[in-house]
UniProtKB/TrEMBL annotation:
Sorted UniProt keywords: Cell projection, Cilium, Coiled coil, Flagellum
Alphabetical list of InterPro entries matching this protein: CFAP45, TPH_dom
Coiled coil keyword on record: yes
Family: Belongs to the CFAP45 family.
Coiled coil: 81-111, 169-222, 252-290, 334-387, 416-477
Compartments reported by the entry: Cell projection, Cilium, Flagellum
Keyword presence, Coiled coil: yes
GO cellular component, one term: motile cilium
Protein name as catalogued: Cilia- and flagella-associated protein 45
Annotated region described as Disordered, given as residue ranges: 1-22
Span of domain Trichohyalin-plectin-homology: 146-494
Length: 511
């Protein structure tokens, strides 16, 4: 299983990775349209072919990143056997020096550390218990943080976080559906109450109309009875007056004139009675008209009352709508408050992540600024070196052309002397090569023995790493199990916990 590596905060997307140099296609070399010109130069070392620089350079020269330049520079360096031996010696010396320093520190700590032995019957003091508990907490916290750096734990944290988000979202959806259902039930209850009130109002209105009709009928009946009684009384009174008139005629025959006067008065009275009857009839007709007008006015009042009732019902509907809107606003406010609390928590987490990211980006920017500065200095140096190289090539070409003729005359003499020297040098080289071969074989045997020892140490270290990895896997599994138990203690639904366990098992099996 691969070693777990700590996951750093995400960098900006336009930042090139250190191990993957990104080169823009526009920065690549363009194809040369015409072949380069070469000249032949003769010097002491022999003949060389030199490329003549083009007076019209490439429009967009290739610019390599620093990492690519360093890689090419390192690859251009040929590591000889001597360099390898020196590197091995330096590594061995550093290893021995580190081991000696470690031994010295260990001895120093063993000397300065005071030996503490627990006496029988003694207990830890409050300060010691507090220090012990604090140390145990710090150890547990550091162990948990170290476990959190494992890639499997990070992926499991992502699964747990996604499951929590899904559980919260499902709970919010269920809560929303419950609220909508409650609102629908409340609306149905209000509609039922309004319908009952409307039916009750209609029944009361019908009863009121019946009562008014009954009162009107009683009033008309009473008025008719009263008019009939008045008519009867008038007729009785008229008969009584006629009887009295006859009695007066019989009793007072002598006073005819007075009787005639009384007769005239009687006629006048009768005329008056007839006028009164006519007036009563006219009053009755006028009362009928008034009653009809009152009926019309009553109908208008009823219509007005119905309109006012409709207006009141509309106002009540508006009040209910406002109450419903206020209730919805309250629900929205509670949701917003809950969302704000979640947003505040998410904002705090995001601020912490942004703070860490800004710190990392600040270091990266400083590093990039330093790299850009070094790159600029390097480009300036390369530019100066190119110009110097071009000048040196031109100067060397001029000097070479001037010395060609002189060198040609000295070549024969120099070659003969050189041949004699080479013969002597070859003889010495053979002797030195034999001696060097013997020493080299001795060193190779020693290095082979050291390599065998190193391979044994590496094998033992690999076994230790495998054991350590197994122990680490057990710790990771236990850490993930504790996370699942914590979720179960937080009353997370079992179906989400089963889903998390399934994903975590897949992550562990994949690793």
């Amino acid at each position: 299983m691969s070693q777990s590596r700590s996951k750093k905060p995400s960098m900006p997307t336009n930042r090139p990775k250190p191990h993957m140099p990104v080169i823009d296609e526009k920065m690549c070399f363009k194809a040369v349209k015409k072949p380069k010109e070469f000249v032949t130069a003769y010097d002491v070392q022999g003949m060389r072919r030199l490329m003549v620089p083009d007076r019209n350079p490439i429009d967009i020269p290739g610019i390599l990143p620093k990492s690519e330049f360093e890689r090419l520079k390192n690859q251009a360096h040929i590591v000889t056997l001597k360099d390898r031996m020196m590197m091995l010696d330096e590594a061995e010396q550093k290893k021995n020096a580190l081991q000696r320093e470690s031994e010295k520190r260990k001895e120093f700590l063993q000397k300065v550390q005071k030996k503490q032995t627990a006496k029988p019957g003694t207990t830890l003091s409050d300060v010691e218990r507090e220090a012990k508990s604090r140390n145990m907490y710090l150890l547990k916290r550091s162990f948990d943080l170290m476990q959190e750096q494992d890639n499997r734990v990070k992926r499991a944290n992502g699964v747990i976080l996604a499951t929590k988000c899904r559980a919260i979202r499902n709970a919010q959806i269920a809560e929303k559906e419950l609220i909508e259902k409650q609102l629908q039930e409340e609306n149905r209850r209000l509609d039922l109450m309004m319908e009952q009130q409307r039916q009750k109002a209609m029944e009361e209105e019908a009863k009121r109309k019946q009562e008014e009709e009954r009162k009107k009928q009683n009033y008309v009946t009473a008025l008719s009875d009263q008019m009939r009684m008045n008519e009867i009384e008038r007729m009785i009174e008229a008969e009584q007056k006629e009887e009295e008139s006859r009695m007066i005629n019989k009793a007072f025959l002598a006073i005819q004139q007075e009787e005639e006067q009384k007769l005239r008065e009687k006629k006048e009275l009768q005329q008056k009675i007839r006028n009164d009857l006519k007036k009563a009839n006219d009053d009755l007709e006028r009362y009928k008209l008034i009653q009809k007008e009152e009926q019309r006015i009553a109908d208008l009042r009823i219509q007005k009352f119905m309109q006012e009732k409709l207006d009141r019902e509309m106002a009540r509907d508006q009040e209910l709508a406002l109450a419903k809107a206020a209730k919805e606003q309250e629900i929205i406010r509670m949701r917003n408050q809950q969302q704000r609390s979640q947003d505040i928590k998410a904002a705090m987490d995001e601020m912490n992540a942004l703070r860490i990211q800004e710190e990392v980006e600040r270091k990266w920017r400083e590093k990039e600024i330093a790299a850009a500065k070094a790159k600029k200095e390097q480009q300036e140096m390369l530019k100066l070196e190119r110009e110097k190289q071009i000048n040196d090539l031109r100067r060397a070409a001029a000097i070479t052309l001037a010395r060609d003729e002189e060198d040609f005359h000295r070549v024969a003499k120099v070659q003969r002397e050189q041949w004699e020297k080479e013969m002597e040098l070859n003889k010495r080289k053979k002797e030195k090569a034999e001696q060097h071969r013997t020493e080299l074989l001795k060193q190779i045997n020693e290095k082979e023995k050291e390599r065998i020892v190193v391979q044994k140490e590496k094998f033992e270290e690999a076994n230790l790493q495998q054991i350590e990895q197994q122990r680490k896997d057990l710790h990771v599994k236990e850490h993930l199990r504790q996370k699942i138990e914590a979720l179960r203690n937080k009353q997370l639904p079992e179906r989400y916990i089963k889903d998390i366990e399934h994903h975590i098992e897949g992550i562990i099996n994949t690793e």
